[in-house]
Amino acid sequence: MTDSYKTLEKNTEEILFKDKGSKFYATAFPLSDPEDMNEILSELNKKHPKAGHHCYAWKIGSGDDNYRINDDGEPRNSAGATIYGQIQSYELSDVAVVVSRIFGGTKLGVSGLINAYKTSAALALDKAEIITKVITEDIIVQFEYPQMSQIMRWIDENGLLIKKQNLTASCEMVISVPQSKVQEHIELLNSWHPIIAKENI
């Protein structure tokens, strides 16, 4: 199980690729919710009202099963799948790439379209600020004040994040830990009696 994935820090600057008079405007976006595509496409329609096609692909999550491709009227698999291939090539997740095409009067043919959409998507991703995000899960840790220094040392040594804490008569913290090490950390903490650790379900 991997603990991290690559995604975008922010939207890329729009790039322009030209081929035989056709203009291909490409932008890459961070995306965590497919519903956000509606707003992205709406804005691009306003920005490029002459575009006959707004082709795109997105991928969400670290697995390979949550993605979508859209040719938006272009020949089947000439645009969306080609754009998605570039997302895969850059090993990105939680990302969308949209290429808006304004027809220039000369047909490119399927092979020409594939090359244009591939090149446009690649140019957009070349400009991207790519970051690595860690996949985490939360665990609940319950302990008494005498164990505070031990818990804080464990948090510091492992570079963990305190999401929430309740320090009253006794102490409880919600800690974010790497997904693949949840059970390892829980077993370690529970070996430090009387500390109690469990998954935050």
From TrEMBL:
One GO-annotated biological process of the protein: regulation of translational initiation
InterPro entries given in the database record: Impact, Impact_N, Impact_N_sf, Ribosomal_Su5_D2-typ_SF
Pfam families found in the cross-reference section: Impact_N (PF01205)
Gene3D superfamilies: Impact, N-terminal domain (3.30.230.30)
Ranges of residues in domain Impact N-terminal: 20-125
GO cellular component, one term: cytoplasm
Domain of life, source organism: Bacteria
Membership in a protein family: Belongs to the IMPACT family.
Protein name as annotated: YigZ family protein
Species for this entry: Nonlabens spongiae
Lineage: Bacteria, Pseudomonadati, Bacteroidota, Flavobacteriia, Flavobacteriales
